Amino acid sequence: MTQTVGENARPLNPLPIAIMLAGVGFIILVTEILPAGLLPQISLGLGVSPSLAGQGIVTFAIGCIVAAIPLTRAAASWDRRSLLLGVLVISAVSNLGTALAPDIVTHLITRFAAGLAAGGMWAMFPGYVRGFTPPERLGSTLSVAFLGVTLAFALGVPMGTLLGETVGWRLVFVIITALTVMMGIIALFLAPRVPGVARGTDARIPVEQTLGAAVRTPAVQLVLLAVVLIVVGQSLGYTYLAPILEFGGVALSTGLVFGLFGIASVLGTIGSGRFADRHLTGTLVSALSAGAVGLAGIGLSAWPGLLAEPVGSALLTISVMLWGYSFGGYSMLFQVVVAHAGGAAADAAQSVMVTVWNISIALGGFVGGVLLAGIGPLFLLPIAAILMAVSLPPVLRVLAGIRAKAPHSTASSAV
């Protein structure tokens, strides 16, 4: 049933486990982003304003930020399978609590608890995949495991919103709870045991594997800088895309644009995963370049009166697909990059990146709101494109360091 993975033994085929983790990732991310589509029903059901009900999204994010670093530190030596099962238990209980919450206070508490589970999940996710995957297959296996994330954006929220309108938001969370329990049962039989960090005789984590070691590593610092630039720009564009398109009077519906983004992000995850193991530099640089070009193209197509309607619609379609492909690609590829950059402290570096990523999402949303109210929607996408383009120098420097450290026989894997 359960396989144990040590330094000298790995499952012969990591694909089934990666598919299982894709299902887990899908459910965890749907749990996070679904309330945005159910906000009117939640506010009505709890008898509060939409703005107050929306604080459930905020408390989830806070839980995710709070959990990532402390939980990774506390559970560094735990078997990864046990940690995965624990996360699923907490997530299931939290979602059931959300479904049954009688008031806004209980709702907020359950969303915070669900955020704790999500923060722990995203912090241990890439390290767990590294534990059962041969190094030469890490990129392709991660692309499968992270496919659930992009599918959640493409399919999970629209399906959940539709269900919420037909059966009610509480039943939607009951369904998510049932799916989480189902994934827990599958993980119980399929997930391999991957040992955590071995503590020393003084019960301490080796210095070279600590959070301090991770954040002091120059390559990790450059990765975090790039993440801030990229994710703030992503949040600027994605959060306020609807008012931007509405202001520009584009012919394509907002729903269609988001749908194209979701489809392209799935393609980006799959496509980037195929090439990441052999051509990491070219794959990541291509993804970020596509994102910068796509954001700039959407900005041009949404500029009132700048382009004729057929040209504007064609440019918008192509640009959204480029942006979506970029998002699906770099979201997975940075897991590979931070693992290389962190070295012995890869798990700690990953937990820091999860925290910085979530803070950057919140920062982008805040800054975007201020800019939207101040200078209007037209400049948000150009600013996002510039931020993504500016991220390329630190990314290239990190990738150059990865190539320099790679054995000569495998150096092509990072080219």
Word description of this protein:
- It contains 18 helices and no strands.
- With 415 residues, the protein is an all-alpha fold.
- The radius of gyration is 21 Å and the shape is globular.
- Helix content is 78%, strand content 0%.
- The chain has 2 domains: 15-190, Up-down Bundle (Growth Hormone, Chain: A), CATH 1.20.1250; 207-413, MFS general substrate transporter like domains (Growth Hormone, Chain: A, Up-down Bundle), CATH 1.20.1250.
- α1 (15-37) runs antiparallel to α4 and α8 runs antiparallel to α9.
- The protein has helices spanning 15-37, 39-46, 50-53, 55-74, 80-100, 104-132, 138-145, 147-167, 169-190, 211-215, 218-239, 241-248, 254-276, 280-301, 309-342, 346-374, 380-390, 392-405.
What tags apply to this protein structure?
Growth Hormone, Chain: A, 18 helices, globular, disordered C terminus, transmembrane transporter activity, transmembrane helix, MFS transporter
Q: Outline of this structure?
A:
The chain is mostly helical and 415 residues long. The chain has 18 helices and no strands.
